Amino acid sequence: MPKFETISQLEEYRRRLLAQRDAQAPQVLVCGGPGCLPMGSEEVAAAFQQELKQRGLAAKVILKESGCQGLCARAVKVMLRPREITYQQVTPEDVPEIVEETLVKGKILERLCYQADDGAVKAKKSEIPFYQGQHPLVLGKMDLIDPTSLDDYLAAGGYRAIPHIFGKMSPEAVIDVVERSGLRGRGGGGFPTGRKWRLCRQVPGDVKYLICNGDEGDPGAFMDRAVMEGDPHAVLEGMIIGGYAIGANQGFIYVRHEYPLAVKRLSLAIDQARASGLLGADLLGSGFNFDVKISKGAGAFVCGEETALIASMEGNIGEPRNRPPFPAQHGLWGKPTVINNVESWANVPEIINQGPEWYAAIGTDKSKGTKVFSLVGAVNNTGLVEVPMGTTLRQMVYELGGGIRGGGDFKAVQTGGPSGGCIPKQYLDLPVDYDSLQSVGSIMGSGGMIVMDEHSCMVDVARYFMSFLNDESCGKCTPCREGTKHLLEILTAITKGEGQEEHLALMEELCVTMKDASLCGLGQSAANPVLSTLKYFREEYEAHILQKKCPALVCRPLLKYTIDPETCTGCLACVRECPADAIRGEAGEPQELDQALCVKCGMCHAMCKFDAVKVES
Amino acid sequence: MSELNLTIDGQVVKSQPGLSLLLAARANGIDIPTLCFHDDLKPEGHCRLCVVEIGPPGRTRLVNSCTYPVEEGLVVQTQSEKALASRRMVLELLLAQAPAAELIQKLAAEMGVYETRFKKADPQARCILCAQCVRTCREVVGVSAISMAYRTPKKMVATPFKEDSEACIGCGSCVFICPTNVIMYTEKDGIRTVWGRHFELQACQKCGTYIAPKAQLEHWAKITGDPVESFFTCRDCR
User: Fold this and answer.
1) Fewer CB near the terminus (10 Å): N or C of chain B?
2) Residue A202: in which H helix or E strand, if any?
3) Rounded to a whole number, what is the distance in Å from the CA of A504 to chain B's nearest CA?
């Protein structure tokens, strides 16, 4: 890789690279995303390497480990280009057959393909419903490139936005483009990105900073992680453009220590960009200096809040501070600072490449472009999806998500991470954007989307999220610190059947103060899980409190286990597992469960193969 | 810089730019209750007792007045329904957090809150985590011997790693500033004990009364550049 000193050197290198590459050459891309990696993608890739070598195909077939290819439920995924055949749940044992049948003979292995509900085999990516409703901009290069290869990124059109701006656009013109594109902060706040940049540019000062917020910490969310691991140069490219626009010469990526692969990939990308003159002094002869450093966080949820993030970067306790002043005026080390999250930065290069009108044509009136969601929970097809703003919840759950797993009924979808809200069935046709989610008591957040079916108890769901928030609240301000503590206490009591009627009004009153008077976004939104479930699922709270029943059969203290003498075979599987010795009876005879001894652990229910253990509330 | 005009509780007042709403209100005889605010410390907005409602009708929101700066034309309500409800709730939460803190009981009673509906902590608990001690140690004394430790469920004021703080000079400023009398020191036989450490007290060379811990006088000598012996005479004998 040469060091590019001018834009024409970069473009010349790209031309030669593309000329050398045969677009029709067979390629095997093994998904190394957050879903596939723990399921053994490295072993699958190693098996391919060995098999291709053994068969003398190593020089002919290009093998790559890519970023997240979506559809994490079917890990490990393998994409075969140029035909775009998508194999799923691939194990190392499948590899010799894939090489022999598909790569050599060109036959499709149906057993490894996606199967639709009607049994139809969908071999190609474009035929799979999960991908059909998507509009990948940020995730567009995920199943194309090897994230450790700058050549791959360049060949896929990367760093094309830089030549667009250097020498051709003034910083103000870049800001203008971003502003006209309608891009809003993808970290959840939804603040217009262009306006944020403009505010920072207008603040007088020689030294300005920009920060990429990679402190994704919501349970079940991995959008930013996937981008940092799978397309790190896109983040850098966005930051270079941002640095040029606001007049910053130093950028930082704040990424949590729990994302070691993201740190590794970003570090490599920074090294590559420095070595090739895409970071450093006088970028491509433009006279503009820009460098990026990684700052690792210790994994506090609150450090995703921008003032807490700055405090953490400065070496102080990760606590937010009051605004104003805003970071754009008084940020890192007191300097004007722009903070955008990973996904926002990754959107920027394409906005420059394709223009603001193109971008603004995607999405809804007030929310432009696409949004990456991590679609998880009770759907068949879990994984990362990128859809135009305004896609309805129904489309996401039933088309992309393939409906409720096990054919059950949809109950709610929780959006926006732990401090989001639970949206019930009647809003399934809600077009998802920043404002619509807020109107139903939830938030966009960074894009978590947890689908729940009738097996979820909404009181327990609220309790779960509150326990997360209580752990993660920094404790600086009273409403959030004491509020999350007491909400958790009350919710726990309700799930144990110890709730009082007056608890509901008390929680509502407390939630109002938390929303109104908390210091930062964490506290201001911490009440959402409680308020939204109280609003839409009040009857579940009432069942817990008044009848001491959990309708979803989740809250253990409210359950009653019994053994049906008609179905029990006396196999004693439950007896062996019962930690309380509460089940008695002769082998081969129906067993009896002593309610006085039962600790309601549910082990007997889980162990019974004959469905003889009944649960009721 | 020229003065700004803003409306506080229906009254048009003038204020220097850069002032907080709290100080602007107080300068005009309008009192707003506070807990974590102190004239000598940088306001940080921990307690949220000083919240006020700002903005034009229909688009109002609560901000804490100790940190929010005055703005030209801003409309501020210090006694609105919303602000008062929030303050009462904060006090109710603090009553549960620090049942033994007399100051909280007094403030709460002034606002008509006599009991808390929340589960009370240890009946002896007094700390409201206002961080005045930590800020005093850092900003006024300049040693940072104590800091906030942990997050919400376990949050507390502590020395580093809860071990004896080497930085502590035993000055007792944290004890003096604490609004709810959580932090205490004892003095016996010329020794002051605070934060688990024992500090030898220096007696006045003239009258023999104890002045301050030796470590504190050494700290003074260090920051003033004067010989430490120059502090060995008490104020009365100087």
Assistant:
1) N
2) helix A193-202
3) 12
DSSP state of A432: P
What are the residue ranges spanned by the domains of chain B? 4-110, 132-231
- CB A208, CB A199: distance < 8 Å: no
Q: Is B151 in Cβ contact with A471 (below 8 Å)?
A: yes
Candidates B22, B34, B48: best to mutate against A (most CBs of A within 10 A) is: B48
| pLDDT surpasses 70 at B1 | no
Which chain B residue shows the shortest CA-CA distance from A326? Answer: B68
Q: Which residues of B touch A317 (CB under 8 A)?
A: 147-148
Classify residue B68 by its DSSP letter: P
Question: Which B-chain residues 125-154 have CB contacts (< 8 A) with chain A?
Answer: 128-129, 131, 147-148, 150-153
Residues of B in contact with A476 (CB under 8 A): 44, 46, 131, 148
ipTM: 0.96
Residue-wise pLDDT for B14-46, tens only, equals: 999 999 999 999 999 999 999 999 999 999 999
Mind telling me how many Å the CA of B189 is from chain A's nearest CA?
38
**Cis (ω within 30 of 0) for the bond into A76?**
yes
Cα(A482)–Cα(A473) distance, integer angstroms: 10
What CA–CA distance (Å, rounded) separates B233 from A572? 85
pLDDT for B238 equals 85
Number of Cβ pairs closer than 8 Å across A and B? 103
Topology at the third CATH level for domain B132-231 = Alpha-Beta Plaits (3.30.70)
Q: Are A229 and A68 in contact (CB under 8 A)?
A: yes
- In sequence order, the β-bridge partners of residue A209 are A250, A337
Q: Which domains does chain A have, with CATH numbers?
A: 7-132 (3.40.30.10), 158-360 (3.40.50.11540), 370-453 (3.10.20.600), 458-546 (1.20.1440.230), 559-616 (3.30.70.20)
Q: Is A319 close to B148, i.e. CB distance below 8 A?
A: yes
Q: A218 falls in which pLDDT band (50, 70, 90)? A: confident
pLDDT in tens, A417-444: 898 999 999 999 999 999 999 999 999 9
pLDDT of residue A217: 87
**Which of B93, B118, B147 is facing A478, going by the closest CB pair?**
B93
Facing B48 at nearest CB: one of A470, A479, A486: A479
CA–CA gap between residue A543 and residue A552 (Å, rounded): 10
A565: number of Cβ within 10 Å: 13
Considering only residues 172 to 231 of chain B, which have any Cβ-Cβ distance to chain A shorter than 8 Å?
none
Locate A411 and state its tokens: 């109950």
- Closest approach of B232 to chain A, Cα-based (Å): 37
Q: At what angle do helices A502-517 and A538-546 cross, to 10 degrees?
A: 140
Cβ contact (<8 Å) for B69 and A324?
A: yes
CATH code for the domain defined by B4-110: 3.10.20.740
Contact A220, A450 (CB under 8 A): yes
pLDDT digits (tens, 9 = 90+) for A228-259: 999 999 999 999 999 999 999 999 999 999 99
- Test the A interface: residue of B138, B151, B155 with most A CBs within 10 Å: B151
